[in-house]
Amino acid sequence: MLYYQAPDKALVRVQYPINQIMMLTANQLIIYYPDSNKAFRIRSTKTISLPFAQIFGSVAKEDYGLSDLGYQLAKHKLKHDTLFTYWDPPGKARNLLGNTVLAEVGEKLVYVEAQSPKGGVISKSFFRNHLESDGILFPGEVLTEVYYDSITSTEYTTYKNVQINVDLPNWVSEFMIPDSCDVEEIEW
After folding, report:
1. Beta partners for residue 112, in sequence order
2. For residues 179 and 37, what is the distance between their CA atoms, to the nearest angstrom?
3. Nearest to 183 by CA among 37, 44, 45, 43
4. Are residues 136 and 154 in the same domain?
5. pLDDT averaged over the chain?
6. 54 domain residue, yes or no
7. Is 155's pLDDT higher than 90?
8. Is the peptide bond before 117 cis (omega within 30 degrees of 0)?
9. Alpha helix positions (H), the chain
């Protein structure tokens, strides 16, 4: 189960193959193993994100949150039924980040491409089987490919029973590592 609470809290409950709870807030990731009562608390000076959870915050925004991150719309073009928009990264990050390309068919985001500063493709994400919840179209399936040198990493995520803007179960909104838990602190 994946729970998202705007603006920056995500909780993931995995029951198989291992019982695990991951809670992500802006600068902290907690990974808790209830069966062994052990946990890792990873703190960072930068925002931590889980790629599969980012989609929750971005689909609810008109430009998928790119303007909030400092990106600027550089150009757009319509090819058949698909609108392509090209986004320039924030000025201070242009030596690290390249353009981002979005493709939409109607109101549905169907493709995102992240480029390097030199224009090479770093990652591609394909979205399909959209679901609607609370007036928001949400992709039911996401295929992401990340390229690094000659290595390609592929992640396929399926979302079911998507519900947006619903009350969270108490155990999610109040989740804390038990005081008796053995916690390893990690600064990153």
Report:
1. 102, 125
2. 10
3. 37
4. yes
5. 86
6. no
7. no
8. no
9. 51-59, 170-173
Top-ranked range on mean pLDDT: pick from 31-35, 67-71, 173-177: 31-35
Residue type at 67? S
Q: Are 151 and 169 within one domain?
A: no
Both 84 and 119 in one domain: the answer is yes
- Which tokens hold the place of 118? 């030199």
Q: Identify the CA nearest to 172 among candidates 14, 23, 7.
A: 23
Residues 139 and 172 in one domain: no
Considering the domain architecture, whether residues 79 and 124 belong to the same structural domain is answered as yes
Distance CA 71, CA 153 (A): 26
| 138 in the same domain as 96 | yes
Question: Are residue 117 and residue 36 in the same domain, yes or no?
Answer: no
- Please check whether residues 32 and 85 belong to one and the same domain: no
**d(C-alpha 99, C-alpha 119), whole Å:** 7
Instruction: Give residue 167's pLDDT.
Output: 82
Q: How far apart are the C-alpha atoms of 47 and 27, rounded to whole Å?
A: 5
* Phi, psi values for residue 186, rounded to 5°: -130, 125
Q: Domain count of the chain? A: 2
Q: What is the pLDDT of residues 97-152, one digit of tens each?
A: 899 999 999 989 999 999 999 999 999 999 999 988 777 788 889 999 999 889 99
Structural domain range at position 82: 61-162
Cβ atoms of 101 and 87 closer than 8 Å: yes
- Tell whether the model's pLDDT for residue 43 goes beyond 80: yes
Is residue 56 included in any domain, yes or no?
Answer: no
Taking residues 58-85, what's their average pLDDT?
A: 86
